[in-house]
Amino acid sequence: MRQPIQLFTPNFRVEECLDGIRECLEKGWTGLGYKTNEIEDAWLDYTRLPNAHFLNSNTAGLHLALHMFKTEFDWEDGDEVISTPMTFVSTNHAIIQCNMTPVFADIDDYLCIDPDDLEQKLTPRTRAVFFVGIGGNTGNYLRVAEICRERGIILILDAAHMAGTRLNGRHVGFDADCTIFSFQAVKNMATADSGMICFSDKTRDERARKLTWLGINRDTYSRTLGGGAYKWMYDVEELGFKYHGNSIMAAIALVSLRHLDRDNAYRRQLAKWYEERLLKEDKIQIVPTFSGCESSRHLFQVRLDKRDQVLMALNEYEIYPGVHYRDNTEYAPFVQNANTCPNARQASLEILSLPMHMGVTERDVDYITEKLSEIVRKEI
Ligand SMILES: *Cc1c(COP(=O)(O)O)cnc(C)c1O
Fold first, then answer.
1. Ligand 1 site: residues with CB under 6 angstroms?
2. How many Å apart are CA 205 and CA 210, to the nearest integer?
3. CA of 180 to the centre of ligand 1 (A)
4. Which atom of ligand 1 approaches the CA of 60 most closely?
5. For ligand 1, what atom is nearest to the CA of residue 193?
6. I need a surface site. Which of 95, 142, 241, 359 has the fewest CB within 10 A?
7. CA 131 to chain centre
8. Distance separating alpha carbons of residues 339 and 35, to the nearest angstrom
9. Could you give the residue ranges of the DSSP H alpha helices within the chain?
10. What is the secondary structure of 119-172 as a DSSP string?
11. Starting from the edge strand earliest in sequence, which strands make up the sheet with 101-104, in order?
């Protein structure tokens, strides 16, 4: 009997993770500080980004980033943030949570923001752009970055799918004002829930560290190390949040990071196997990867007609693909933006993400692509 093939199955190195977690427990330190410092250093070393602060999620980071820019620059309620409708809703919730107005730019063939449409959507009230690298693909990020730079618009990169993605040889994030990664359980660098926020600017990084712990200016870990009679003493400089990561998650993240490059290389191999087998199938379009992008390959996406029927038919064979994502303007909080992005609306009906994880073998890819080809030929 064949095992069901899921879209994502995390591949935790259990013994290595338990070793790290045991160190935390034996030390009696599971919270902020200790392993969270180690993962920040390891992430800086790995990405060569200038700053990194470990968070409890990418969602928290998206909100924090926009909140910080808004208060730093005194943006007004109702000022606009341009984003993509083709994302997990975390990206766009942040805009509404900051009392700003979401404006959606349409997507291109990479399923990322189309720079031409972005230019159309700019207004005098545009303050920031959220760019999402879908599936690890950078899309036309470089042109979007150029547009933002020319006009003094803040660029925030939602790199939830991009741990390990390189663009022209450099890890992504080097030229955004802020880049936020996700290490959630089904992401390509998995923990349970955590993330990393990377500001280009040191002062913002320092402010972020306070804001992720309620605005408190000195963390408990360094106070413990510091000693003295004033261990209990701290100040609250401004209203903050409880958004920092903890040492248990950091211990798991350190293990995932050690394996990240090898895992991503295997994902790219899977993508190649899929591509080789699907290239000849004219009813299936493969979503292209931007040239110069070495994608983390969090996703392998294709487009086809009658997607929902195809997906159901694959489920009959215990193959469980996914959809990333539904056009966000179809959700209640964004109804006022409905029908502003026809390409995203169309893509939303056609896209299918095929199983992509360390447990998928070349034979699985054979099986999945055979069944997929059979179904599209029969169905359409
Ligand atoms: C998963 C995801 C998020 C949220 O990440 P969490 O770490 O789960 O909060 C945000 N944006 C995109 C594009 C995602 O896929």
1. 57-59, 87-88, 90-91, 132, 158, 160-161, 182, 184, 195
2. 9
3. 9
4. 9
5. 7
6. 359
7. 10
8. 46
9. 14-27, 35-47, 58-73, 90-97, 115-121, 141-151, 202-211, 220-226, 247-278, 307-316, 342-350, 362-379
10. HHH--TTEEEEEEE-GGG--TTHHHHHHHHHHHT-EEEEEETT-TT-EETTEET
11. 53-55, 195-199, 178-182, 154-159, 126-132, 80-83, 101-104
CA of 268 to the centre of ligand 1 (A): 21
Distance CA 164, CA 294 (A): 8
Give residue 230's pLDDT.
65
- 182 CA from centroid of ligand 1 (Å): 6
Q: The pTM is what?
A: 0.96
Helices 35-47 and 247-278, axial angle in degrees (round to 10)? 40
Q: Which residues lie closer than 8 Å to 178 by C-beta, 6 or more apart?
A: 65, 69, 154, 155, 156, 157, 197, 198, 199, 200, 204
Tokens encoding 206: 């320092």
Cα–Cα distance measured from residue 98 to residue 66, given in angstroms and rounded to the nearest whole number: 7
Whole-number Å distance, alpha carbon 160 to ligand 1 midpoint, is 5
Question: How far is residue 223's CA from residue 159's CA, in Å, rounded to a whole number?
Answer: 33
**How many residues are present in the chain?**
380
Compute, in angstroms, the gap from residue 56 CA to the centroid of ligand 1. Answer: 11
pLDDT digits (tens, 9 = 90+) for 61-76: 999 999 999 999 999 9
Q: Per the structure block, which two tokens stand in for 124?
A: 């005098």
Q: Chunked in runs of 10, what are the mean pLDDT values of the chain (380 residues)? A: 89 97 98 97 98 98 98 98 98 98 98 98 98 98 98 98 98 97 98 98 98 86 64 87 98 98 98 97 97 98 97 97 97 95 98 97 98 88
* DSSP label of 279: T
Biggest alpha carbon distance in the chain?
77
Q: How far apart are the first and last CA of the chain?
A: 29
> E strand or H helix at 54, and its extent?
strand 53-55
Domains of the chain: 14-258 (3.40.640.10), 260-377 (3.90.1150.10)
